[in-house]
């Protein structure tokens, strides 16, 4: 798709391609906020996860398992956040489907805060 930064992510010098399969690619940003944080991107333009074909879904899952092994061996995280943002209101900023794989570490300031932390922090706990 014209002007989509993820349709040719391997040509983007801000990303380092770590591995790929027939349907998708896993990349790391060269400048990372959390070490080892990356994305799995389908090679074909799909706006959201809901637009993936069954084969792309299966290949994404297969690559996710390989990514976890890679991260466990090279970064040794204490946990993970894995997720999709879908649509503008859902927090999606690049409208090419991408699965965030974010290693988490016990010594980081947000350790123990999951993806719903912002929703839960304002709730009163009895």
Automatic annotation (TrEMBL):
<dbReference type="InterPro" id="IPR036265">
    <property type="entry name" value="HIT-like_sf"/>
</dbReference>
<feature type="active site" description="Tele-AMP-histidine intermediate">
    <location>
        <position position="98"/>
    </location>
</feature>
<keyword id="KW-0808">Transferase</keyword>
<dbReference type="GO" id="GO:0009117">
    <property type="term" value="P:nucleotide metabolic process"/>
</dbReference>
<protein>
    <submittedName>
        <fullName>HIT family protein</fullName>
        <ecNumber>2.1.1.-</ecNumber>
    </submittedName>
</protein>
<dbReference type="Pfam" id="PF01230">
    <property type="entry name" value="HIT"/>
</dbReference>
<dbReference type="GO" id="GO:0008168">
    <property type="term" value="F:methyltransferase activity"/>
</dbReference>
<dbReference type="InterPro" id="IPR011146">
    <property type="entry name" value="HIT-like"/>
</dbReference>
<dbReference type="InterPro" id="IPR019808">
    <property type="entry name" value="Histidine_triad_CS"/>
</dbReference>
<keyword id="KW-0489">Methyltransferase</keyword>
<dbReference type="GO" id="GO:0032259">
    <property type="term" value="P:methylation"/>
</dbReference>
<feature type="domain" description="HIT">
    <location>
        <begin position="5"/>
        <end position="111"/>
    </location>
</feature>
<feature type="short sequence motif" description="Histidine triad motif">
    <location>
        <begin position="96"/>
        <end position="100"/>
    </location>
</feature>
<dbReference type="InterPro" id="IPR001310">
    <property type="entry name" value="Histidine_triad_HIT"/>
</dbReference>
């Amino acid at each position: 798709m014209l002007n989509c930064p993820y349709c040719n992510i391997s040509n983007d010098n801000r990303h380092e391609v770590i591995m790929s399969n027939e349907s998708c690619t896993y990349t790391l940003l060269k400048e990372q906020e959390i070490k080892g944080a990356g994305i799995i991107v389908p090679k074909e333009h799909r706006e959201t996860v809901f637009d993936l074909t069954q084969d792309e879904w299966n290949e994404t899952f297969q690559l996710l398992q390989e990514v976890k092994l890679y991260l466990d061996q090279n970064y040794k995280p204490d946990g993970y956040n894995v997720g999709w943002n879908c649509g503008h209101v859902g927090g999606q900023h690049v409208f090419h489907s991408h699965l965030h794989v974010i290693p988490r570490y016990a010594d980081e300031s947000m350790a123990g805060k999951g993806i719903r932390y912002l929703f839960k922090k304002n709730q009163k706990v009895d």
